[in-house]
């Protein structure tokens, strides 16, 4: 019995010693496990905080990126507006420079134009002077010719022919002694010398046919034989006198 008890007590003792050894170990393991759990929770919490901060940073970065893009777009738009304004300003400056250069060219050419205008003015004045001189010579020639036409006015009166200057240009030629029934009956016409030295006739009384008068006037202007014209006009009037039976 004692041997059996000893055999029984020995395992029990060893079991008690094992318990005494395992209890601190289990306590240490529990402490270690608790430490590990705490560390794990702390790590998880820290990781979650890091992740949350990272997400917030990403969100902020995205917002900053979008803000930057917006600013960039606005800046590009302003740059385009500035470029358009710069181009318009450049074109305006170039246009104004072109106008300025044109004005400079005109100013440069003004003395030449003034000289040309003076030359033209001098030529015109010379032409006017020449025309005045020509007109004066024509008037003198006309006056001389009219005076020649009126020469011997008194000499022709007894022949029944009279000349009378009615104004500066016209000369009235009268005939009498053509009608044997009325020696004082007048036959007359107006004649004038133009500036080109041609003759014109009007106011025939009594009227001579236009064809006959124009023919006589044409011959006068062709041959310039005034005496012959006077004689033929007198004959034309004489032919109009009715001779009594």
From TrEMBL:
<dbReference type="GO" id="GO:0007059">
    <property type="term" value="P:chromosome segregation"/>
</dbReference>
<dbReference type="InterPro" id="IPR013255">
    <property type="entry name" value="Spc25_C"/>
</dbReference>
<comment type="similarity">
    <text>Belongs to the SPC25 family.</text>
</comment>
<feature type="coiled-coil region">
    <location>
        <begin position="72"/>
        <end position="137"/>
    </location>
</feature>
<keyword id="KW-0175">Coiled coil</keyword>
<dbReference type="GO" id="GO:0051301">
    <property type="term" value="P:cell division"/>
</dbReference>
<dbReference type="GO" id="GO:0005634">
    <property type="term" value="C:nucleus"/>
</dbReference>
<comment type="function">
    <text>Acts as a component of the essential kinetochore-associated NDC80 complex, which is required for chromosome segregation and spindle checkpoint activity.</text>
</comment>
<comment type="subunit">
    <text>Component of the NDC80 complex.</text>
</comment>
<keyword id="KW-0137">Centromere</keyword>
<keyword id="KW-0539">Nucleus</keyword>
<feature type="domain" description="Chromosome segregation protein Spc25 C-terminal">
    <location>
        <begin position="168"/>
        <end position="238"/>
    </location>
</feature>
<keyword id="KW-0158">Chromosome</keyword>
<keyword id="KW-0132">Cell division</keyword>
<keyword id="KW-0498">Mitosis</keyword>
<dbReference type="GO" id="GO:0031262">
    <property type="term" value="C:Ndc80 complex"/>
</dbReference>
<protein>
    <recommendedName>
        <fullName>Kinetochore protein SPC25</fullName>
    </recommendedName>
</protein>
<keyword id="KW-0995">Kinetochore</keyword>
<dbReference type="InterPro" id="IPR045143">
    <property type="entry name" value="Spc25"/>
</dbReference>
<dbReference type="Pfam" id="PF08234">
    <property type="entry name" value="Spindle_Spc25"/>
</dbReference>
<keyword id="KW-0131">Cell cycle</keyword>
């Amino acid at each position: 019995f004692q041997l059996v008890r000893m055999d029984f007590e020995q395992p029990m003792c060893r079991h008690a010693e094992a318990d005494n050894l395992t209890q601190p170990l289990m306590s240490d393991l529990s402490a270690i496990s608790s430490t590990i759990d705490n560390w794990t929770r702390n790590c998880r919490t820290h990781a979650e905080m890091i992740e949350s901060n990272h997400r917030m940073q990403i969100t902020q970065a995205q917002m900053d990126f979008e803000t930057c893009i917006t600013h960039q777009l606005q800046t590009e738009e302003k740059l385009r507006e500035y470029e358009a304004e710069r181009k318009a300003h450049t074109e305006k400056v170039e246009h104004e420079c072109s106008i300025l250069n044109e004005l400079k060219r005109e100013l440069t050419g003004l003395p030449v134009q003034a000289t040309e205008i003076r030359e033209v003015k001098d030529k015109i004045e010379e032409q006017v002077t020449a025309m005045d001189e020509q007109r004066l010579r024509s008037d003198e020639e006309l006056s001389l010719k009219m005076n020649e036409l009126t020469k011997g006015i008194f000499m022709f009166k007894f022949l029944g022919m009279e000349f009378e200057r009615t104004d500066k240009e016209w000369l009235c030629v009268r005939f009498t002694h053509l009608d044997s029934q009325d020696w004082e009956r007048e036959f007359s016409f107006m004649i004038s010398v133009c500036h080109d030295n041609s003759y014109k006739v009007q106011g025939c009384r009594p009227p001579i046919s236009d064809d006959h008068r124009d023919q006589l006037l044409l011959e006068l202007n062709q041959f310039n034989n005034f005496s012959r014209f006077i004689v033929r006009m007198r004959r034309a009037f004489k032919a109009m006198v009715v001779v009594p039976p």
